[in-house]
Amino acid sequence: MNTQEAGRPVQGVLGAIAPEDLGFTQSHEHASLDIREFVDETFHLDDLEQVGDDLRVARGNGLRTIVDVGTDGHRRSPQFLADVARYSRVQIIASTGYWREPSYPAYVASETDEQLAARMIADIRDGIQGTDIRAGAIGELGSETPGMSALEEKAFRAAAIAQRETGVPLITHTAEGLDALRQLELLTDSGVPPERILIGHVDCDDDVELHSKIAAAGAFVGYDRVGLTQFQPDSVRVRLITEMLERGLGRQLIISTDLATQKDMRNHGRPGYSYLIEEFLPRLREAGLDEPAILMLTVENPRRLLCGA
After folding, report:
1. pTM
2. Which of 84, 85, 133, 177 has the greatest number of beta carbons closer than 10 A?
């Protein structure tokens, strides 16, 4: 693979990562957050040994890179992400953007699209929260309300400006697939190339026609809540992946686990960041996926999203 085919390096919390060095990548995860006010006490990741040891095990299983899609609204710490990357030797890509409207800073309502974009561009080019730790992605850029609210659309337009200026990938959050097509339309109408967009949490909606429309438009389809069976049984996700492959749309699928709570960590008896490798990939193999298909889902597709091709 030559450099032109692979795309350009992506910014990690410890420096640039060459496309060929990304390896097995989970493109929608969390390693640092504090969203206890929105969920419960376990949605608080700030223990270096807990998170770092879990990622170390996952690295031993084959994981090389994660995208932490936390924003200021998730109260993620760029310094903690850098510490975890050093401790675990898993490459971490940090994000910038605006998550859900209840978590927006007050300035989102008062500033212009361009001013909000400038904040994201500074996170990407200079560093997050006054550090020299730079974001390598925009996301998880979220919407929750049917039809999207005016503030949500504003955040998306601002993110589109920042994406066009910096060229970084853009990863979204949907409410279980709600308004997935509207998100995609808004971003592409604002000039974002569809091949740099990952529409998130689409696997929570058992609608292969919706997924096919996103893929046919050239964007990536996020099957990124694997293991979160409160939204969807994994058996449905296996079927959806199989159907998308049969339709020739496998190159547009991204799989990840959206780990965000201590309840799913290894020291609580769960597979943690290793869930894809230990639990889900064996099910895909049992369903008939061969190793080239597994490589496409876990290495090649994330690389094209993150680095371009």
Report:
1. 0.97
2. 84
